[in-house]
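Recap for those who missed Tuesday's class. We walked through two folding examples back to back. For each one, the amino acid string is listed first and its predicted structure tokens come directly after. Nothing is annotated here on purpose, so try labeling regions yourself before you check the end of the notes.
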Amino acid sequence: MAIQQGAQAPEFTLFDTERKPRSLSEFHGKKTVLVFYPGAFTGVCTKEMCSFRDSLAQFNSLGAQVVGISVDSPFANKAFAAQNNLDFPLLSDFDRAVSKAYCGVYEEFAGLKGYMASKRSVFILDPNGRVTYVWISENPGTEPNYDEVKKALA
């Protein structure tokens, strides 16, 4: 069961690309855009994260912090961030607990038996951590509507 609009976003602590624990509560006080993506270095995820990177100034001007979350290791996320000049936090949900709580997972992702990846999704939280926008895709090849995300933030 995914998190619904209007709910309080569940607190979590995940590791960033420097293996430093980062908690959701540290982003309170500004709007937060949580972007769950299935896998670093995959075509659609690279395009999606680069789209968020390219719109970062606009998100910042709307008082928002973008945070990417995937089931990839901190090491893979670090290489992914470096290769694509991603200058927002990428957090590692390697045990998949946060993905399961927020958006669910794709079972047997990319045809790999037993491998689960975060469903591609976007959650916008208000400065108090309440969910104001939810988008979850059942199809990992579908990107979010970036203009809709910006409009929801504005």
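Example two. Treat it independently of the first, because the proteins are unrelated.
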Amino acid sequence: MADVVTVVGGGLAGSECALSLAARGIAVRLFEQRPGGDAPAHHTDRLAELVCSNSLKAMRPDSAAGLLKEELDCMGSHLLRIARSCAVPAGGALAVDRERFSAAVTQAVEDEPLVELCRERVDAIPDGPAVIAAGPLCAPELAEALAELVGGDRLAFFDAAAPVVDAQSINREVVFSQSRYEENGLGDYLNCPMNADEYQHFWDELVGARRVIAKEFEERDLFNACQPVEEVARKGVDTLRFGALKPVGLVDPRTGHRPWAVVQLRPENAAGTAYNLVGFQTNLTWGEQARVFRTIPGLEEAEFLRYGVMHRNTFVDTPRVLDHTFAIPGRDVWLAGQITGTEGYVEAMASGVLAAANVAARMRGYEPVRLPNTTAFGSLVAYATNPNTQPYQPMHVNFGLVPPIEGGKLRKRERYRAYAERAREDLRAYLAQRPELFADAQGQPLGLTS
């Protein structure tokens, strides 16, 4: 195995991976196509440029986003440390000055003697060890090479995902369990029944809701393969009722009759802690999704673990093409960042840390990293690499992915606090067992130890 690791992509995942490898005493060649390459969503040639929001989400320790930041502190994230130094006021969230943040990350990479920054586009899969962190707008040539390696049907170019809600926020006095034509109430789906007035109100709100405006490079063909639910609704008031919301084969146990329309919820994971709204891929703004979809009977108090999205996004079918380390089996090639289907700024940083640790493990003959699935990022990795996750759509960290707390039913805040406490204990114990991978070249811990 070569002594130098190739990292493709200078975004959050690639920059974090390069700095994390260097901290372990491993040399890196980091390739970034800007400024010469075509990058339609970017505006500068700096590394780790934030192209959407400048928010890295909540800091609360009893939130999934806040817990993820704690975990990254423990694992030695460089970019999270830089983000805190570039923070701007944002209430309970961590938000950064975009220009200061990207400039600081670029400077950190350029100042690191073990990292060589190469301003070149990469069109082929490099010889290993290599980390592909090319991002959601991967260059066409590299995407084609990746498709040849993993299989063309295992690489997607659009993210069209329905919203996911916390199972415990669903009103089970209204929502009933049943698959079509089954009468025993033991079906795989949950069903939100609507009468005619409820359906009409939902339809009116849906077709009048505010939508996200697609970027120019997305507008040409974004919706060719998959229509947003609001666009289907605009074709006629009954279109959804004879499509995704058809009530055929279902009986509402409260009335003994077939509803006028039904929104079906499908389990997102084996534990049944999260459900997605079937057929509800959407281009509505997140605020409008919360408002409109809470008009659905049984979802009045729904907590959204993720909102629906439709945008350009290159990602692989991770559960079927990558192993639990995000490596391509049989190759010394790992994927990191959004190309694995893990969404979010801090999640991208986490995937860079994880890729660096696993590359180091392979190079030095150690066992690979397997984070506890009770942790925020460990649960996301477990979800993303589980062959039973099907169909696979990008996901960010949320408490709907972690194993439930055993015992009595807890209120949401108590439950989240219990999740966080368990995660801290499990991660601390795991890292204490793996000092060979979470220490620098001088043997000092990379992250916080308390």
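Answers for example two:
Confidence is low (pLDDT under 50) at residues 216-225.
DSSP finds 13 helices and 16 strands in the chain.
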